[in-house]
Structure formats: C-alpha cells, structure tokens
Amino acid sequence: IIKIAFDCRPGAIALSLALREPKYQETAAYCHFGRQAYTHQGIKYFEWENAKDLSEYKGMTSAQVSASLKASNYLTKWVD
After folding, report:
1. In the Cβ-directed half-sphere of 24, how many Cα atoms lie within 13 Å?
2. Coil, strand, or helix at residue 36?
3. Which of 50, 57, 59, 48 lies closest to 4 in space, CA to CA?
4. Which residue ranges of the chain lie beneath pLDDT 70?
5. How far is CA 11 from CA 41, 59, 73, in A?
C-alpha cells in the first residue's frame, strides 16, 4: 500500500511536505503536533495533520494489491 499510495523519493517527500516554504519558524513554536491545518497567504501550515485516506485498500486481496502495483508507477518512484 505504501508503494502504491505514496511517492517516497526524497524530492517527492520535500515537495509533498513543502519543506522549502518559510513556515517552520511558526511550526516550531508551541509544539507542532495536533494543531489544526490552515493556509495563510498561500502557504499551508500543519498540513501533515491531514492524513491521507487509505480506506480503499482495506478490503483488497493479494491479487488486487498485485494488480494495483502493476498498474501504478511505483517502480519509477522506488528503488528496491
């Protein structure tokens, strides 16, 4: 499921979490877990609190997972 749903290349993680945005001074103050996500002047704050919905994978069989892997681009995202 991780390989299907997430792009875990370092650059993709940096892009997904917007690590180059100047927001981390605010996130470092007053703890950063459990805070409400919001956007201010086009910059998203505490976005990691919005969990990705993976419920579609809950009832998948092994064959369905294999088919999803073959249909996805995980081989271009991961180096195994």
Report:
1. 5
2. coil
3. 57
4. 22-34, 48-50, 74-80
5. 24, 31, 16
